[in-house]
Amino acid sequence: MTNLPLAAPDITDRERELVMQVLNTPILSGGPMVQRFEEMAASVAGRKHAVAVSSGTAGLHVIVRALGLGAGDSVITTPYSFIASSNCLLYEGVDPLFVDIEPDTFNIDPDQVELALDFHPKRHRIKGILAVDIFGHPARWDRLEAIVQEHGLRLIEDSAESLGSRLDGRPCGAFGDAAIFAFYPNKQITTGEGGVVLTDSDDLAEMARSLRNQGRGPSNEWLEHVRLGYNYRLSELHAALGVAQLERLAELLGKRAQVARWYTQRLKDLPFLTPPTVYGNVDVSWFVYVVRLKDGIDRRLVMQHLQAKGIPTRPYFPAIHLMPFYAERFGFKAGDFPVTEAAASATLALPFHNNMTEDQVHYVCDQLQSLSETLG
Hints:
Blueprint: H1 13-23, H2 32-45, E1 49-53, H3 56-66, E2 74-77, H4 84-90, E3 95-98, H5 110-119, E4 126-132, H6 141-151, E5 154-158, E6 166-167, E7 170-171, E8 178-182, E9 195-199, H7 202-212, H8 236-247, H9 249-267, E10 273-274, E11 282-283, E12 289-293, H10 299-308, H11 324-330, H12 338-344, E13 347-350, H13 358-369, H14 372-375
Parallel strand pairs: 2-3, 2-4, 4-5, 5-8
Antiparallel strand pairs: 1-9, 6-7, 6-11, 8-9, 10-12, 12-13
Helix pairs in contact: 1-8, 2-8, 3-4, 3-7, 5-6, 9-13
């Protein structure tokens, strides 16, 4: 068994049918399919509003802009994430104020958030918190919501990786002033490229609709632009794909959960790695399946061994603060966030997608098992 894909979308005739419905109309942008998709996404998150955009990154940028965050402000966020969760702040001149993460879930550590608010030299510039549901596991939103209420801050949920996850029964996408979902092909559902802004605020939703469409006014009058905006629209074709995927959401999440169960059952006793941690009050929708190698294990050796057997892997995630651009601009260095750096050097994403078979999962696990004696 060779050449397993690291990830793959799950597309059926229903997706093709809805895309063809759009192609058989003259409306390829700004039509009824986008509205239908927005209504479905809002329902999944339990939100009043959903505003479809061209990517999760665009959605985060829109939220930062709509909340009025800008130059001179700082926002507490995590250094362990896909880089978009920090880049969206830089687009508006906001400084990302990193704090370290929890060693088990890899989510932002609320204790570190509180320390930053009490003692960080830039604490008086802090206007909000942007937390990420890493790999689909919800952050500690109960703690974070209490913190922002105490300090009068904004709260943004980057739920790009957690559509379908829940914390204490509340769906991801429901936390904070606003949240986003993202729909890249490796996500729980896909629109090819795309995202959605989620909020209960009428004003935020109106601003998001304006910003995604070149700053058009609330009347949506053609060529009437009332503010600086962007071309962040989602097309009818992308929305059609998303509608079909959301119709199948329970099926898609069930498939992912089954693949995760197969992996965890086989890997839970492997001596040189730890499967993902899931808290008891959490339901995880499984964006990726990321294991953590034990201290002293050479990740390159593991990756090379698996690649030789036709199994691709990726080191998820590198530390954002050590990316050259961030290190040069802000002066970050190794040792600044030790929990993040330890995770970044030891985490590994295994092949994971809806249609992986049990035999394929066992093949990956067999190859990992064969490394046990070599690694000690």
